[in-house]
Amino acid sequence: MNYSWLHGNRISFMRILIVLTLLLISLPALADITGPARVVDGDTIWIGKTKIGIYGIDAPEQRQDCIRNSAPWPCGFESTEHLRSFIGSSPVTCESYGRDLHGRMIGKCQVNDLDIGAEMVSQGLALAFVRFSTDYVQNERDARDLGNGMHAGTFVEPWVWRKKRR
User: Which CATH entry fits the domain spanning 33-165: 1.10.101.10, 3.40.50.2020, 2.40.50.90, 1.10.287.770?
Assistant: First the structure.
């Protein structure tokens, strides 16, 4: 019997396996990352050279205003400042949940064993991003019931605000 086709397929399989292995090795780490964080906005940080979107939440954009007491309120700025204050100088640990369409790591992050996403949503300074996760739906309900942050007035959801700005 002629088994030459098997030899050719075996070599192709090995080549594919080698290429996939090299790709996996060369990808930026999708594992846990820990270190000092630099806050970009209410749902984005950098740890070292890794840009991380906080999993399961969407915070108002830096220049986004909400309405409170019939007047504009800089909810995007407040969201960013709260996250900066919440993290302080403590190290942040993020568990990777993959990457978004822009290549940014998406991570469930903690500071001093406290869930950053839960904190931001509970304070009303971010919304549960139910398109991707339902982890913080109860935190958002509680924040709304208490009138925390954005829930003390009116606001445009961050994903709607961004879409209108494009």
Answer: 2.40.50.90
**Which H or E run contains 54?**
strand 50-54
User: 137 and 130 in contact (C-beta within 8 Å)?
Assistant: yes
Burial state string for 130-166 with b = 16 or more CB within 10 A and e = fewer than 16: eeebebbeebbeebeeeebbbbbbebbebeebeeeee
pTM: 0.81
> What pLDDT digit, counting tens, does each position of 70-120 carry?
999 999 999 999 999 999 999 999 999 999 988 999 999 999 999 999 999
Task: Compute how many other C-beta atoms are within 10 angstroms of the C-beta atom of residue 56.
Answer: 28
